Amino acid sequence: MTTQEILSKYKTIAVYGMSGNPSKPAYEIPEFMIEKGYNIIPINPKEEQILGKKVYHNLMDVPDKIEILDVFRPSQEVVEVVRQAIERKKAKGDIDVIWLQLGIYNDEAKALAENNGLEFIQDKCLKIEYNKMS
Question: Domain limits at 1?
């Protein structure tokens, strides 16, 4: 699937590493996606609330169905995030796409995700890709 097809099909995005700091892309980009009608679920072990939304401290705590897992973590941490996503997919049957933001990429994580039936996008910004649709 293209990034535009993904953004047209899926509307619930869990943001792994969402920031409570409005000057950071990990705050600004999810805020933009909320304005565009997406359901954003923040995941951050240090925050309680961001943009008026309850923050979950880890991926398994999220009670809602996750369609896209958007990752704002350093490239070297992505393999562990993908392992958690695979564990969650096996347990709850959700997470269709893992999306790594601009500047984040990890080919080991990509292979691991794809071998477990997950669509994998890396080094692409949700906001930039969304804006290509209009």
Answer: 1-60+72-98
Within a domain: residue 107? no
Which CATH number do you get for residue 12? 3.40.50.720
User: Does residue 25 fall inside a structural domain?
Assistant: yes
CA-to-CA distance for 108 and 125, rounded, in angstroms? 20
Which of 14-33 are b and which e, b meaning 16 or more Cβ less than 10 Å from the residue's Cβ? bbbbbbbeeeebbbebbebb
Tens of pLDDT, residue by residue over 40-92, are 999 999 999 999 999 999 999 999 999 999 999 999 999 999 999 999 999 99
Instruction: Write out the two tokens for 70.
Output: 């958007």
At 91, phi and psi to the nearest 5? Answer: -80, -40
Contact 97, 91 (CB under 8 A): no
Cα 26 to Cα 39: distance, rounded to the nearest angstrom: 15
Q: In total, how many domains does the chain have?
A: 1
* Total residue length of the chain: 134
Residues 134, 96: Cα–Cα separation, whole Å: 24
Q: Which residue has the tokens 């979950």?
A: 56
37 neighbors 45 (Cβ within 8 angstroms): no
